[in-house]
Amino acid sequence: MKKQLTFGVIVGSRGFFPHHLAKEGREEMIKVLDAAGYKSIVLTPEQTQHGAVQTPDDARHCAELFKKHREEIDGIIVTLPNFGEERAIVDAIRLSTLQVPVLVQATPDRADTMKISHRRDSFCGKMSACNNLMQYGIPYSITALHTVSPSSEAFKKDLAWFSAVCRVVGGFKNLRIGAIGARPAAFNTVRYSEKQLERAGISVETLDLSEVLGRIARLKDSDDATQAKLAAIKAYVPTSGIPEEALLKMSKLGAVIDGWMKETYCTISAIQCWTSLEEYFGVVPCTIMSMMSENLFSSACEVDVVGVLSMYGLALASETPSALLDWNNNYGEDHNKAVCFHCSNLPKHFFADVVMDFQAIIAGTVGKENTFGTCVGRVKAGAMSYLRFSTDDYTGKIRGYIGEGEFTNDPLETFGGAGVVKIPKMQKLLRMICEKGFEHHVAANFSTVASSVYEAATRYLGWDMHYHEQPQD
Questions:
Q1: 6-172, what's its fold?
Q2: Among residues of the chain, what percentage have pLDDT more than 70?
Q3: Taking 90 as the threshold, does the pLDDT of residue 113 lie above it?
Q4: What positions does the domain L-fucose isomerase C-terminal occupy (predicted)?
Q5: Which fold has domain 176-467?
């Protein structure tokens, strides 16, 4: 996932404005992008005047350049060092046929240099560019400030925000999700529409649990795949007190899932657990799933396909691991706090300390010896974003909610993977979840990326989203 992002850059310019502004603006934007670790695809001064786009020919040159690099370009940045020629800008984007996020930036004038030789008018030109983007039906994003210098700290934040938007949009494009096993009968809440996801460009590849167990039966304890996964498990989490037989079962399960994911080009997964694997195979898949999520190949339990999509959205935006949790318990009398919990398959990134243990909830039913493999510990404190996508069969739309809060250090004595979360006006959020019929699972991530994911989902994917306590400008 952590690849270098590439931006197509359009330098807007209008003929009767000072040309040196376009030249300097292009050079400044390229320098800023390079310093931030991004690659830029932009016209050169040999191709058009100062490498800017202002004529119909310029627009076509730019479009052809972008077409040549269409597999590389993650987003487009329109920079306006002066007013800009709005029609040439939007023609370049339309003719390129790229369908990627677009950011519009306008460079501010200086109050002490407003004479004809240096006046930009990009303050006004940005409105014209956005107006034409709207007319052409091209979705676009704007910077936090109406005008902002490319070299400023403010634009640095805009760029980080926009990069997260691009990662989410690009990461969901042609995404393949592995659904391993059947949805447990007791989990009606995680039912979903494959067809709605397919229409959004997201495919679901299924694998029956019997096939998993059949492939495992063909593996030997001494096979390279088994031993490699066993070593990876022992390096990942302390396994003191866990029977070697259980560790070998986990290793074979992990090797089979890894192999199948590669065969089918699946990036993320949702896996049946409760209680088939425990009863008929003799371990829980939690550690294997935790390891995948830790490596940003998100994995959710109970075949919660849209839940793992939520995990992956946050992971793409933040480039850090996500977990899927239950909104599980109230926390005493504090109405803005709750306990979030899972058995657990949380990535170890979430824990202050983590060890492998057994699944305490179902051990009494299937036997402790069949439930080894959970990753347990206390969720560490820190800022967090939360997200839930859902497919709505009544409206035929994908919808969701998003927001930010924090995991706290409040005392908590329980089992599994658990933490206390604090969210502003949480009762309002919980009421919305219940009134709108959302699932009890929620994705969480140690980051503050709600704004980027919301932008990606609403503006570029066209999904209906609720932003809880959205920051006001």
A1: Rossmann fold (3.40.50)
A2: 99
A3: no
A4: 340-467
A5: L-fucose Isomerase; Chain A, domain 3 (3.20.14)
